[in-house]
Amino acid sequence: MSTRLRVQALYRMKNMAFWKEKTLAQMNSEQWELLCDGCGKCCLNKIIDDETEELYYTNVSCQLLDAQQCQCRHYEQRFDFVPSCTKVTLDNIAELTWLPDSCAYRRLYLGRSLPSWHPLVTGDKQQMHALGMSTQGKVVNETKVKYLEDHIVLWPLKDSD
Ligand code: SF4
Ligand code: SF4
Asked: What's the pTM?
């Protein structure tokens, strides 16, 4: 069990549903980090149509994404490897409309609740993976892909309460 999941389990055991009691602005940095479900969808390459500005997800992951664990291989140093990586913050969450509807930050920002499969609710990532809400086993590393256009997929758009 990772450190993050141990902390998640601890919060759950103590019934500290901070995501129900606090606004995003009231959360401390540890709680903010715990909100991330670790789905990996934000680490997928996306394409924006020049003419329509429509956004398309691909199944092509950032080079640093561990496809099985759905985690960044160098999370703390990620900006050294991928300067274009985006840190989700209170200040930019309103602008990050490309985040998937299932993203915990987007859900709470839009006044929704965490889904029943969220690791903070269930205690681990198994249900999220089983429901297909993560990238686990479904992505190709960008170092192995020539044309992003050949990899447009719809599954990252799936959301479920
Ligand atoms: S999409 Fe949102 S919840 Fe999922 S890994 Fe990215 S930041 Fe975390
Ligand atoms: S650097 Fe890490 S966190 Fe950023 S997009 Fe890549 S895998 Fe995701």
From this structure: 0.90
